[in-house]
Amino acid sequence: MTDTTAKIQIDGVHKFFGELHVLKGVDLHVEQGEVAVLLGPSGSGKSTLLRCVNGLEEFNAGRIRVDGELVGLREVTRRDGSVELHRRTDADIARQRSRIGMVFQRFNLFPHQTALGNVMEAPRKVHRLSRGEAERRARELLERVGLADRAHHYPAQLSGGQQQRVAIARALAMEPELMLFDEPTSALDPELVGEVLSVMKDLAASGMTMVVVTHEVGFAREVADQVVFMDDGLVVEAGAPDQVIGDPRNPRTREFFAKVL
Ligand code: ADP
Ligand code: MG
């Protein structure tokens, strides 16, 4: 079934790494402005799924659409009317990827650039913004993540939480239509987790469409519109946080939350 209103539409996605079947027919729809929080045990395929949405990983079957447009693939209609799927060109995949912001567990900031420099870099290179315009926007974004006073600090002079907030500002500088987060707080000391989640919460409130892989069940409860539980390459259960976390129907979901809560 084609749901043309979904911002992200994942249907029947399979992914193999060699013999290893890591996504086994994943279905997931995320609406415009929705926050979907993905939870599940290590190795269940969460990161791989995000990477497929972002065009960083090819998949073997199924369809992913962002704003109705096929990710990584394009339809080619032959003279006899049949439709074939072809891989998109690298340039086309790069264009699709540029609409999506991604934040990883490791911040991956450029170590030899300041916070400001990190946020200015991609808009300067990709969008060809002037230095002045890129700097003006970068300062606004640093302000938005609470780091206006750290603009001239280098990554090594920032805490992990501050570095991750710079990484979020850097992703936002490309004006993405949606944001993917892969365990953005997992590498942080516990006392730094809150400041990053708080920035993500503000972003959600601003209407950004977000898919967040996290073990922070409190964040899922508070911010998610949809909680998605993955296990062994499949979405086992998805729905409202109160239902999936508070009253899971599937035994595997129940077992998972019984352990983490
Ligand atoms: P999660 O993020 O839920 O922990 P992943 O998507 O990282 O799970 O991994 C799912 C499975 O795919 C795991 O068994 C993992 O070892 C395997 N895997 C992930 N990336 C690769 C890769 N590049 N090559 C081979 N196997 C991989
Ligand atoms: Mg992962």
TrEMBL record:
Residue ranges of the TM segments: none
Enzyme Commission designation: 7.4.2.1
Native species: Tessaracoccus rhinocerotis
Keywords assigned by UniProt, alphabetized: ATP-binding, Cell membrane, Membrane, Nucleotide-binding, Transport
Signal peptide: none
ABC transporter domain mapped to chain residues: 8-257
Protein name: ABC-type polar-amino-acid transporter
Top-rank lineage group of the source organism: Bacteria
Catalytic activity: a polar amino acid(out) + ATP + H2O = a polar amino acid(in) + ADP + phosphate + H(+)
